[in-house]
Design goal:
This protein has 289 residues and is mainly alpha-helical. Helix content is 69%, strand content 0%. The radius of gyration is 29 Å and the shape is elongated.
């Protein structure tokens, strides 16, 4: 029997690059552009106008503001003498509809951010736009613009109708017109923007809506049941800075003689919303999607 001879190791083959380019060149027919905030705004605008929840929520808002505002003005006009209306601001009857309608704006603001976390679509959004701050800014700009325009149109329609209905009431001044239409519309849009930011922080639609409704209603309700004299200062502060009272300030019908006046509620809402927006941005950068 012959002994098998050990095989000698073979040398590794040497590779030589083929002449010409290693890979064929390819030119995409899709133009490559650097994305910016405008692209994110266009994307968020497509989202907010294409979902049914936006149309339903804004539709209910318009019905509440216009329906209750006109009903209040017509009821007062039918049951009040012309002399008793002499000192009334006819714009103030839009307050009731706007207070209830603000719940719709709050709901829509929360859904603008929190609903994407509930469905998981936020992952697609972040893949399309990795800049998280840009996404949040685009949502804020689009939502604030929509909320302000819809609120202004509704409040202006109610104001003009109530002025026409209440012929015996005083003629509102230019400052009263500005506060009762533009001012209160900015305030409600900021309230909705705060809700949007809360939705980004909480990432849960029902939880964020509950918190925001509590912010709107809880201080006033708690103050109504504070009967102890030792809590009088706290009770007064809750009255003064409650959302319903701040809304009434725009019509010069504050529930208290002290507290915010003039344009103060708008600056308060702006400061609170800016602080919440900064917190939401910081959390968005640290959290995982």
């Amino acid at each position: 029997m012959s002994t098998p001879q050990p095989q000698m190791p073979q040398a590794a083959p040497t590779w030589q690059a083929a002449p010409g380019p290693s890979f064929p060149t390819y030119t995409s027919p899709i133009p490559v552009v650097r994305t910016h905030l405008g692209h994110a705004i266009a994307s968020e605008w497509t989202k907010i106008r294409s979902v049914r929840s936006t149309m339903w929520t804004l539709g209910v808002f318009v019905l509440l503001v216009i329906g209750i505002g006109l009903a209040a003005g017509a009821l007062v006009a039918a049951n009040s003498a012309e002399e008793s209306l002499a000192g009334e601001n006819p714009l103030s009857f839009g307050f009731f509809g706007l207070l209830l309608g603000s719940m719709c704006v709050i709901t829509l603001g929360v859904l603008t951010t929190a609903s994407e976390y509930g469905t998981g679509m936020i992952r697609t959004t972040m893949v399309a736009c990795p800049s998280r701050g840009r996404v949040l800014a685009a949502k804020a700009i689009v939502f604030f613009s929509v909320a302000f325009v819809v609120t202004l149109a509704s409040a202006l329609l109610v104001a003009m109708a109530d002025v026409a209905l209440l012929e015996g009431a005083k003629e509102p001044s230019g400052q009263e017109w500005l506060k009762g239409t533009v001012g209160i519309s900015l305030y409600i849009a900021l309230l909705g923007l705060l809700s949007l930011v809360m939705g980004s922080i909480i990432r849960h639609s029902a939880g964020a809506i509950t918190i925001m409704i509590g912010v709107v209603l809880a201080p006033l309700v708690i103050a109504l049941f504070m009967f102890s004299a030792s809590l009088e200062d706290l009770r007064q502060a809750l009255f003064e800075y409650s959302i319903p009272n701040q809304l009434s300030v725009f019509y010069s019908n504050s529930l208290t003689e002290t507290g915010p006046s003039g344009w103060d509620p708008l600056w308060i809402a702006l400061g609170v919303t800016a602080a919440a927006f900064a917190g939401a941005f910081a959390l968005l950068e640290k959290r995982d999607v």
